[in-house]
Amino acid sequence: MQLIENIRLAFTSLFANKMRALLTMLGIIIGISAVIMITTIGTSIQKTLSNTFNSMGNMNIFDIVIQTDEDTPIFEDDLISREMLDELVTTYPDHFDLEMSESFGNATTRNAKGQTITMNVSGAMDITPAFDHRRGRTICYEDNKQMKNAVYVTDLFINQYFINGEDPIGQTINLTFSNGVSADFVIIGYDELPQIYKRQYAPGTKEIDKTTPIVVPLDTMLHLMHQEPENEFYAMVRYNADYDPVMLQEELQEFFDEKYAEKAGISIYIFNEQSYLGMINTVISIVTIAISVIAAISLIVGGVGVMNIMLVSITERTKEIGIRKALGAQNSAIRMQFVVEAILICLIGGIIGIFTGMLGGMLIGYIAKELVTQFYAEYAELISITIQPSVPAILISVFFSILTGVFFGYYPANKAAKMNPIDALRYD
After folding, report:
1. How many C-beta atoms surround the C-beta of residue 183 within 10 A?
2. Is residue 396 included in any domain, yes or no?
3. How far apart are CA 258 and CA 170, in angstroms?
4. 94-108 tens-digit pLDDT
5. Residues ≥6 apart with Cβ < 8 Å to 185
6. Which of 206, 230, 254 marks a domain boundary?
7. Do 210 and 287 fall into the same domain?
8. Is the same domain home to 194 and 154?
9. Does the residue 296 lie in any domain?
10. What is the gyration radius of the CA atoms in the chain, in angstroms?
């Protein structure tokens, strides 16, 4: 009951001096809102990066890089070969897929009307669709191993080629490549054309004149182009996310360590694509915390303001304190009254600061979305901007608001509690 009475008295005092109370809270509001805004921006950047990486389908990738000593020469036979990678997939068929692709220029075909359709051809070991609107299946490792004449297309190609609305899955089309070679390919699936391609077409371009990307098995294209797979300093493999990445990385390291055991001065370094995101998020977290701490210094200024106003308030209410003590109020009751009032000032200021900071963070996020749309339209589909306030920062801000009230309100409250009731009653 005493606490409720103290809260009621605190609100009465605040409403009696609304402008003074608001100005007192201003330092707390600015400090808390700055912290919340900064943490909201930091958390939102981390979430945006995570969503963007996930949408690109590149999170479950291992990079395999050759490292050499300074004085160690490296020859063609020392590089990572396709035979090694094929053996890796054969050894661990459920664990890894090869992440390899190459551009092969343009190809053409004709629809039932005799209209020419131009396509941009990519060869891939396997592909992960970027959208959920696909039909059929994608290119996989087995398609490459068997050098199938399979093709994965887009909905734009479907509209260009199948003018009568036929079901494209399983249909055979003839493709003529830039070296003059022609071959029949079976459509195994298709997906929505990415926005990044749609924005490359000039306004008013007829649908039949738009170049559409298609994907075929890499080994099939190398065979048709009379090319051999090249050995590389660098390779990527996609791993099965159902397994522990640490265990899979150990398997990879053991596999390649065995391959390069007899090659002095040459070693293999393997790292997870997720480690990039982890490092970036760590840097963002450190910077966010550092800036938040600097912003939180303004809470000290706000706390000093609270202490100053509480001293003024106690001076103004000296007679009230004297009367309460004359009527038998204990020092602890007087102290608690003014501590509760200081806490209430800081808590209200902190809550206002939290909402102000969240609003500011969301506003900055909205502006960022508009800037991406206006100036980086070709990447707008890939960049998934997400605004996410930091819940821990909000809880910590509420705690520090209360702590500020206790810390900076205790001295004035203790001064009030120690007043001599006779001197207080005499105060004019």
Report:
1. 16
2. yes
3. 43
4. 888 887 888 888 999
5. 149, 150, 151, 172, 173, 174, 175, 216
6. 230
7. no
8. yes
9. yes
10. 34
pLDDT in tens, 264-311: 888 888 887 667 667 777 777 787 777 777 777 777 777 788 888 778
Q: pLDDT value at position 131? A: 46
257 occurs within a structural domain: no
Does one domain contain both 49 and 135?
Answer: no
Amino acid code (one letter) for 135: R
Q: What is the residue range of 48's domain?
A: 2-55+278-426
Question: CA-to-CA distance for 190 and 139, rounded, in angstroms?
Answer: 10
* Number of structural domains the chain divides into: 2
Instruction: Answer yes or no: is 68 within a domain.
Output: no
Closest CA to 194 of 208, 214, 169: 214
Q: What is the mean pLDDT of residues 16-26?
A: 80
Note the residue count of the chain: 428
Please give the average per-residue pLDDT across 359-363, as a whole number: 84
Q: With both helix axes pointing from N to C terminus, report the angle between 331-375 and 318-326 in degrees, rounded to the nearest 10.
A: 140
Give the distance between the most distant pair of CA atoms in the chain.
Answer: 109
Report d(CA 362, CA 43) in Å as an integer: 12
